[in-house]
Amino acid sequence: MNTIVDALISVLLASWNVLLESAPFVLLGFFVAGILKAFLPDDFVARHLGGSSTASIFKAAAMGIPIPLCSCGVLPAAAGLKKQGAGKGAVTSFLISTPETGVDSIAVSYALLDPLMTIIRPVVAFFTAVAAGIAVSFTEKLSVSGIPDAEPDSVMEHEDACTSKCCCSHHEPEPDGLGNKFMKGMRFAFGDLLKDIGGWLFFGILLSGVISVFLSPEIVSRYLSNEYLAMLLMLAISVPLYVCATASTPIAAALALKGISPGAALVFLLAGPATNAAAITVIAKLLGRRATVVYVAVIVVMSFLAGIGVNALYASLGISITGWLSASAHDDGGPLSVVSAVVLVVLVVKAMLPVNGHGHTH
Known about the structure:
Helix content: over 70%
Oligomer: single chain
Shape: globular
């Protein structure tokens, strides 16, 4: 019994240390997300993604990078883009770059990973999105007898089911005045968005604590020392798993501290948020089955190739791919970290409590 209690305390302490490291950056990320929501018009993305040109695919990838939507929450947004005339290539690009990274996950990457990975992650997400968008667009042009797609409206119906656990968007009248817009953005970031992501973030932090306590470097060295095998395992785990970009970061950091290569960590960070079993079925209705196969295949191939390239880059810089992340790389939690952690916990609990009235506000 004492052994179980000791193990539980060790997991909680390890998780608390991860929370201390990440909390200030998480709050900063959500603040920036609120600013984007407040001052970026709801139809801004749709107005720039019309047609099926390569330029629209690049724009979709670039616009998706800072937007903090999960792989489920991005679906109704993408369906709305398609309904407003965006091409399949642009929709595909947006579907990948948006959940793979965001201002919140970039901030947490800086907190828990190294600066190099913080830069590499959104860059690879951008090129993965572009590659998938071009591949889907090219596949559609070559198709002679296409597989029927679902009407966008049928995917929009998924929004109601998605709202309870993801950050789906709803249209509402734009408030007047900078102050009102700012408050609207903050309510979105620290209300709806925090409710959608906060639980998953804490799950990821708790899982990172479990990994820190129970996964020894010897196990990683024995079974995951082969960098290619480790990347394949990360793909097998992450493709069907639902994990948002922010929650995947502490898990990847915990694995890295045990000796997982930066390439394997990147594979998990890219493939996990962009794919999951539930989202893929909806994407098949939105884009068609052929395009969905291309969508998943490009993510898998690009993630694997990026993992190989990142390992080679770290090795060329003289950084060990088994010791590229060390606990000493992060500062001990000071007063700011403690206050930020407490504030984050309070905000997440508050956001997840039942709301009187309609139960969901925007």
